[in-house]
Design brief:
- By secondary structure, the protein is mainly alpha-helical.
- It contains seven helices and no strands.
- α1 runs antiparallel to α2, α2 packs parallel to α4 and α6 runs antiparallel to α7.
- 32% of the residues are buried.
Length: 137
């Protein structure tokens, strides 16, 4: 019988992010120009379900690197988890413009637009998702 390692692994990962946050906070406070540390901080906040802080760190990253797809990815999901569909859709639209040709971001963008009641634009992005999806995930 196979053993399921998913739950213990997730506990270890979340623990890692929780432990990393104070170090990354000190690092980014000492040097707000450290884009990589800001990205890691945003991701750590996100993984520990601290979505408003993840959005704030992502916005700080995007002031340093306005063309950072990773910044828009984390920002979009931080807003998505808070059900802020308008801000999430803007972040994901920026992401798909920076990194076109990926199925999952098109689906998430379509979902946000659908939540906003923008059915026609959502359909456009759902169709892009279908075109791009290779059924591997």
């Amino acid at each position: 019988m196979p053993t399921n390692y998913t739950t213990p692994l997730l506990i270890i990962i979340v623990s890692f992010f929780q432990e990393a946050i104070p170090v990354l906070e000190r690092l980014t406070a000492a040097s707000v120009r450290n884009a990589r540390a800001l990205q890691m901080l945003a991701q750590s906040y996100f993984e520990t379900k601290r979505y408003p802080q993840a959005a704030d760190a992502s916005l700080k990253l995007l002031t340093l690197k306005p063309e950072s797809p990773e910044g828009y990815w984390t920002l979009g999901f931080a807003y998505y988890e808070q059900k802020d569909w308008n801000r999430a859709s803007r972040a994901f639209l920026r992401y798909v413009n920076l990194k076109p040709g990926q199925a999952i971001p098109e689906f998430v963008l379509a979902t946000c637009l659908d939540q906003l009641g923008n059915a026609q634009e959502a359909i456009v992005h759902y169709n892009k998702f279908i075109e791009l999806d290779d059924h591997s995930s």
